[in-house]
């Protein structure tokens, strides 16, 4: 298996908050360039890579969607050299005090999120979590310098560098969902030595964390016959040992529920069984909270699938993911794709009409 | 001594070498009771600077730089080496460990942080429940420390054990005219006393104490003061600057100290009333040499000075601190200029110390 870790670390250190995915998109484009036949950027910033299949034209198309955008913060004001901010995507303010950040304005400026002492906060604040509107970013710079270099609207990314933990796991921010971008990349690498009849459209989607705008529009533009969204899911661990949690580094999950095409699901599961990739079925009774939700209802409707990579501490700067799961996901995708025959859509039709 | 004979208190007091030393000290781990890593750096630095060095049974470093004359006043400078941090207290298996705080740590700053565990600095993280799984009501409550775990990864089973210390995994860096790092409280004080040993004046017997266990009750300073038996003492520390905007933009009357306003001279804190002779002398020295200073707002808090003051028959004490923001969190910020002026003020004050200042009136 190709070692995907250096690439993944590079992705994690690149900025690319929802709606501003440029820096991370450039890194993915460079990595994908030799692995695909065509590369393009959509009107809303998703990266499309086409790897042609060997089937006769017109060929069927499968879309793989992993979102490259990340949650983060945005400067909302400047007071005495300190920055006030709000969020882009879902951020629990309780994880923010003491967090290193990078403010991406006219220059990349490091800073730290701070919680003012209780005496400077509204009465009754003692010992309670400080709401985001009262948190500040300190850059260490003099106020005049801050006024010169920063303005409201500047994006703020988390500054935590990736950390390799024991047992083939990696911690860092934005592993949701760049772990899946790495898995799609692992799939493309694997496909280099395989024959596949279908065209493969690898897509790093934009704006998943805010509106699914990237996935929805890419699905329309590419108009695939089948789609697989790849996203992180909840791993069991401290703070989350509930009934919905999955083992970390014990295999990906295969999503099942109303967002998922039930017959295509069976084919994906069969591929995993036959090449002995461990997995759990993730039952998702409603909205999957992933690109699959948007893709399924693009155009006249697209049969959609979902693979989940279990991850601890989602939406914190120390999200933790299993590297084996990333490689397993890539391998399962490649296997599934190489099994797709030109008549696969007939196999999965929900009703065989006379 | 005429004014022109005095050591120039130039900006060169803090140059690249001093910043590099502060960086090493800040990145080193020395949770109260486990100060070895910082102690080794200090010993290496002061070996060529001090006339006598010993390490006592608690781990304090006691060093002396002899005066150039007989019967010179014995002045103790104390800077604590220890920092707040964590101790592993239980093993939950699969690389997950229970931990407790050593020193005053606000549990609100723990979730979502990276840490380093044990002497081999094993990386770990303190996670938090995904926001997707929390309720609005839950997010209004502080996550209690006992529900958090240090996670070394699933392969971390057996890699740590109860008793191991952990610190925030923060890397020191320059931020413009400031420095950023963990444990600036009190590596700034440690680095300051090292510089004072380097520029030790001949008129005093300089007794440097690099103390242990300040953060859990100034326990090292207490025995160090007994052993050194000084005529007077200064605790050199870093004190909080709460110079942030208030939530409603009203005047901040509870700033404690301001960054950029110079060293903070203590008059009263939660543990000590400073000796007024020290206060007046240091303010006069600052005025004479044009060194900026500020009075730390009287209030709560404390330093090694309280333990030193009440040792034996009593010691005239004062605290002088480098102002620093966000002490006891993953990363603090201090101005290089304030550190420089702290060294300058202490240096000027010691050099100009009248031999009989602390002798009881006849």
Summarize the structure.
Chain A has 354 residues and is of the alpha+beta class. Chain A has nine helices and 17 strands.
Q: What is the CATH H-level superfamily of the largest domain in chain B?
A: Zn peptidases
Examine the coordinates and then state which fold CATH places here, giving the name of the CATH topology of the largest domain in chain B.
Aminopeptidase
| Order of H and E elements of chain A | HHEEEEEEEEHEEEHEHEEHEHEEHH
Estimate the helix proportion of chain A, in percent.
Answer: 25-40%
Task: Please report the first level of CATH classification, the CATH class of the largest domain in chain B.
Answer: Alpha Beta
| CATH homology-level superfamily of the largest domain in chain A | Zn peptidases
Radius of gyration of chain B: 21 Å
Question: Mind telling me which CATH architecture of the largest domain in chain A this is?
Answer: 3-Layer(aba) Sandwich
Principal-axis shape of chain B equals globular
Strand residue percentage of chain A: 25-35%
Structural class of chain A: alpha+beta
Distance between the termini of chain A: 46 Å
Low-confidence stretches of chain A: none
Radius of gyration of chain A (Å): 21 Å
For the residues shown, what is the average pLDDT of chain A? 96
The total of helices of chain A stands at: 9
Described by strand count, sense and barrel closure, the largest sheet of chain B is:
8 strands, mixed
Task: Please explain how this structure is put together.
The complex is a heterodimer of chains A (354) and B (362). With 354 residues, chain A is of the alpha+beta class. Chain A folds into 2 domains: 5-70 and 173-347, Zn peptidases (Aminopeptidase, 3-Layer(aba) Sandwich), CATH 3.40.630.10; 72-158, Elongation Factor Tu (Ef-tu), domain 3, CATH 2.40.30. Chain A has 9 helices and 17 strands. Chain A has helices spanning 5-13, 22-32, 143-149, 175-191, 213-222, 262-274, 291-295, 323-339, 344-347; strands spanning 38-41, 47-51, 61-67, 72-79, 82-88, 100-104, 108-114, 136-138, 155-158, 163-165, 169-172, 199-205, 226-234, 253-256, 280-283, 304-312, 319-322. In chain A, the strands form 2 sheets. In chain A, strands 1, 2, 3, 10, 11, 12, 13, 14, 15, 16 and 17 form an 11-stranded mixed sheet that branches. In chain A, strands 5-4-9-6-7-8 form a 6-stranded antiparallel sheet. In chain A, strand 14, helix 6 and strand 15 (280-283) form a beta-alpha-beta unit. In chain B, helix 1 (16-27) packs across helix 4 and helix 6 packs across helix 8. With 362 residues, chain B is of the alpha+beta class. Chain B has helices spanning 16-27, 36-46, 136-139, 184-198, 219-228, 276-289, 305-309, 336-351; strands at 52-55, 61-65, 74-80, 85-91, 96-102, 113-117, 122-126, 150-151, 165-168, 173-175, 178-181, 205-211, 232-240, 264-265, 294-295, 317-324, 332-335. Helix content of chain B is 24%, strand content 23%. In chain B, a hairpin with a 5-residue loop joins strand 1 (52-55) and strand 2. Mean pLDDT of chain B is 95; it is low at 1-10. Chains A and B meet through strand 7 and strand 10 of A and strand 7 and strand 11 of B.
């Amino acid at each position: 298996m190709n070692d995907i870790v250096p690439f993944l670390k590079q992705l994690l250190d690149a900025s690319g908050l929802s709606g501003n995915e440029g820096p991370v998109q450039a890194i993915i484009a460079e990595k994908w360039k030799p692995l695909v036949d065509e590369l393009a950027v959509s009107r809303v910033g998703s990266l499309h890579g086409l790897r042609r299949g060997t089937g006769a034209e017109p060929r069927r198309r499968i879309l793989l969607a992993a979102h490259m955008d990340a949650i983060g913060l945005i400067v909302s004001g400047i007071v005495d050299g300190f920055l006030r901010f709000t969020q882009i995507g879902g951020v629990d303010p309780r994880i923010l005090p003491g967090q290193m950040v990078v403010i991406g304005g006219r220059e990349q400026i490091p800073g730290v999120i701070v919680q003012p002492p209780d005496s400077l906060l509204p009465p009754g604040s003692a010992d309670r979590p400080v709401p985001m509107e009262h948190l500040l970013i300190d850059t260490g710079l003099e106020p005049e310098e801050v006024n010169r270099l920063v303005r409201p609207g500047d994006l703020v990314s988390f500054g935590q560098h990736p950390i390799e933990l024991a047992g083939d796991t990696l911690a860092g921010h934005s592993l949701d969902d760049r772990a899946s971008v790495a898995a799609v990349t692992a799939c493309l690498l694997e496909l280099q030595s395989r024959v596949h009849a279908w065209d493969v459209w690898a897509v790093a989607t934009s704006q998943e964390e805010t509106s699914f705008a990237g996935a929805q529009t890419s699905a329309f533009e590419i108009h695939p016959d089948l789609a697989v969204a790849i996203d992180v899911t909840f791993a069991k661990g401290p703070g989350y040992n509930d009934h919905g949690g999955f083992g970390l580094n014990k295999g990906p999950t295969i999503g099942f529920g109303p967002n998922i095409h039930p017959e295509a699901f069976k084919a994906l599961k069969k591929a995993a069984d036959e090449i002995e990739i461990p997995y759990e079925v993730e039952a998702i009774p409603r909205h999957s909270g992933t690109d699959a939700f948007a893709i399924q209802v693009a155009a006249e409707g697209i049969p959609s699938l979902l693979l989940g990579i279990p991850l601890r501490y989602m939406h914190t700067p120390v999200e933790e993911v299993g590297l084996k799961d990333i490689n397993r996901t890539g391998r399962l995708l490649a296997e599934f794709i190489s099994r797709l025959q030109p008549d696969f859509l007939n196999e999965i039709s929900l009703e065989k009409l006379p | 001594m005429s004014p022109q004979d005095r050591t120039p208190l130039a900006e060169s007091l803090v140059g690249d070498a001093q910043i590099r030393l502060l960086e090493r000290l800040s990145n080193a781990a020395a949770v109260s009771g486990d100060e070895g890593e910082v102690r080794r750096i200090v010993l290496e630095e002061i070996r060529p600077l001090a006339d006598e060095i010993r390490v006592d049974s608690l781990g304090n470093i006691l060093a002396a730089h002899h005066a150039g004359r007989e019967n010179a006043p014995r002045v103790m400078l104390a800077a604590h080496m220890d920092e707040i941090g964590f101790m592993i207290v239980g093993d939950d298996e699969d690389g997950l460990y229970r931990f407790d705080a050593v020193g005053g740590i606000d549990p609100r700053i723990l979730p979502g942080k990276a840490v380093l565990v044990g002497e081999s600095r094993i990386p770990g993280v303190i996670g938090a429940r995904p926001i997707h799984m929390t309720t609005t009501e839950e997010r209004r409550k502080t996550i209690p420390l006992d529900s958090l775990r240090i996670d070394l990864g699933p392969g971390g089973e057996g890699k740590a054990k109860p008793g191991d210390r952990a610190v925030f995994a923060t890397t020191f860096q320059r931020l413009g005219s400031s420095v950023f790092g963990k444990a600036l409280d009190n590596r700034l004080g440690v680095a300051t006393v090292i510089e004072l040993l380097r520029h030790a004046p001949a008129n005093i017997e300089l007794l440097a104490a690099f103390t242990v266990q300040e953060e859990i009750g100034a326990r090292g300073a207490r025995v160090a003061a007994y052993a050194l038996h000084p005529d007077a003492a200064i605790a050199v520390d870093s004190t909080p600057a709460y110079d942030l905007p208030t939530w409603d933009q009203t005047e901040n009357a509870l700033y404690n100290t301001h960054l950029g306003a110079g060293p903070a001279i203590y008059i009263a804190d939660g543990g000590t009333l400073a000796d007024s002779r020290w206060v007046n002398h240091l303010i006069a020295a600052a005025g004479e040499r044009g060194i900026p200073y500020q009075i730390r707002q009287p209030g709560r808090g404390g330093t090694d000075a309280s333990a030193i003051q009440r040792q034996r028959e009593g010691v005239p004490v004062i605290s002088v601190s480098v102002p620093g923001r966000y002490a006891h969190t993953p990363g603090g910020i201090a101005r290089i200029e304030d550190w420089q002026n702290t060294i300058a003020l202490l240096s000027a004050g010691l050099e100009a110390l009248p031999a009989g200042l602390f002798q009881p009136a006849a």
